[in-house]
Structures are given as C-alpha cells and as structure tokens.
Design a protein that fits this description.
Strand content: 25-35%
Radius of gyration: 18 Å
CATH class: Alpha Beta
Family: Belongs to the RNase PH family.
Number of strands: 9
Distance between the termini: 41 Å
Protein name: Ribonuclease PH
InterPro entries: ExoRNase_PH_dom1, ExoRNase_PH_dom2, ExoRNase_PH_dom2_sf, PNPase/RNase_PH_dom_sf, Ribosomal_Su5_D2-typ_SF, RNase_PH, RNase_PH_bac-type, RNase_PH_CS
Pfam families: RNase_PH (PF01138), RNase_PH_C (PF03725)
Shape: globular
Keywords: Nucleotidyltransferase, RNA-binding, rRNA processing, Transferase, tRNA processing, tRNA-binding
Largest sheet: 5 strands, mixed
CATH architecture: 2-Layer Sandwich
Structural class: alpha+beta
Strand order of the largest sheet: 1-2-3-5-4
Helix content: 25-40%
CATH superfamily: GHMP Kinase, N-terminal domain
Length: about 240
C-alpha cells in the first residue's frame, strides 16, 4: 500500500528531539514524530510522596495533556471540565511506568522527578513521542544534578499496526484511525519489552503479523535510542 506521507512500511516519520528547550526546567525536550509535537519537561523536587515516607527510594511520575488546538478542532481544557479523561489518565500512567524503568529508584532516595508531557500538535503517536522525549528530559535532569549514575536504561516507544493487510511502523493519525489493528510498544535499550498495548479494531491479527510488528518496532526503537543517546551524551 502507498502510505499517505510516502514512507516505506518500515520507516519512521521524521524524528527530531530538541534538548533544553525550556530554560527553566531541569531537563526538557521538544519532541517531534512527524507532525506530532510534544514538549517534555522534567522537574526535580527534594521530596517524596507521603505514602513513601518509610521507604528508602525516590520516585518518577508523569503528567500528560493535550493543548486546546493540538487537534483539528479546539478541545476544552480538562481543568475547565474539572477532571481528567480516562484516556489522559491511562496515557500518563503508561508514561510514568515507562520512565520509572529508566532509573534506579534507590539512587533517587529523597527525590521526586515529575515529567510533564504537553502535546502542542497531534498527528498520532502522542504517547510514544512522550515516552521517547520524556526519557531524554529525565536523563538531562539527572545529569544537571550530577546523578547520572541513577540512569539504568534508555527507553523509547513506537506504534505499529496493520492497515490494508500491510504491517506499518510509526502510524500517523490517518493510518491509525483506519488501521485494522494498532499496537504501542515500549522497549529499553537492551530491546527488552516494557509494555505492549494492542487492539484489533476491525480484524484480528495473526501470530505471524504480531511477530512482524514486534520486529518493526524493535528496529524503529533501535533508531530512536541511538538518537536519544547521541543527544544525552552531547549535553
């Protein structure tokens, strides 16, 4: 099939990560997966959640949100509605779980790092861009306070899916919205699986297709982690 942006089936969108995008945050990254743009800011606090008072460890958490004109129609701010949507909560929990795999929490004892992921423009893959860029922001924050030894693994994420019987890497919104199945995959730099979120929307996918999708994701994540490492080591 011909992809809408003329990419090969196994090709990532144009990826860019601009580090230290925010002059105020301890770590930050403007992350672009094609037309999906996410600002990731990492904030370090010398405090831990109250429920962790008796535990000798630190904490990493995430918040996620989409700005009103990040999509083709204006959406109301969730603060105006008085609560976050189930989708928002699910995505920010995924981001938090993924980013906690980046660090050795015991080496963060007494500290909390919050990574805010704000989508300023959406075209599919906002959660995967948030995880990939959030990892860079988190590592840069740790470098700023000379806690690089707390970094365990780089973590990146990408979407894959089956559209018109073709397995595709890094779906944009048009591809995702018409896909027979779509899967978000999170891996570390050893290519160990951290999380797999997959759904058959129209037609179930076979074991063979799933294996192909995992391989596509693995190759894409190799490229993403190579880019992350280059940026983090350069700063």
């Amino acid at each position: 099939m011909q992809r809408t942006d003329k990419r090969n089936f196994d090709q990532l969108r144009e990826i860019s990560i601009t580090p230290t995008f925010n002059i105020h945050a301890e770590g930050s990254a403007l992350t672009k997966f094609g037309n999906t743009h996410v600002i990731c800011n990492a904030t370090i606090e010398k405090a831990i959640p109250r429920w962790m008072t008796d535990v000798k460890t630190g904490w990493v958490t995430a918040e996620y949100g989409m700005l009103p004109r990040s999509t083709n129609e204006r959406m109301n701010r969730e603060a105006q509605r008085g609560k976050q949507s189930g989708r928002t909560l699910e995505i920010q929990r995924l981001i938090g779980r993924s980013l906690r795999q980046v660090v050795d929490l015991k080496k963060l004892t007494g500290y909390t790092i919050t990574v805010d992921c704000d989508v300023i423009q959406a075209d599919g893959g906002t959660r995967t861009a948030s995880i990939t860029g959030g990892t860079v922001a988190l590592c840069l924050a740790l470098k700023k306070i000379n806690m690089e030894d707390a970094i365990n693994n780089l973590v990146a994420a990408v979407s894959v899916g089956v559209n018109n019987k073709t397995c595709l890497l890094d779906l944009n919104y048009e591809e995702d919205s018409s896909a027979d199945s779509d899967i978000n995959i999170v891996m570390n730099e050893n290519l160990d699986l951290i999380e797999v979120q997959g759904t058959a929307e129209e037609k179930p996918f076979s074991k063979e297709e799933f294996s192909t999708l995992i391989n596509l994701a693995e190759n894409g994540i190799k490229d993403l982690i190579s880019l992350q490492r280059e940026i983090i080591e350069d700063k």
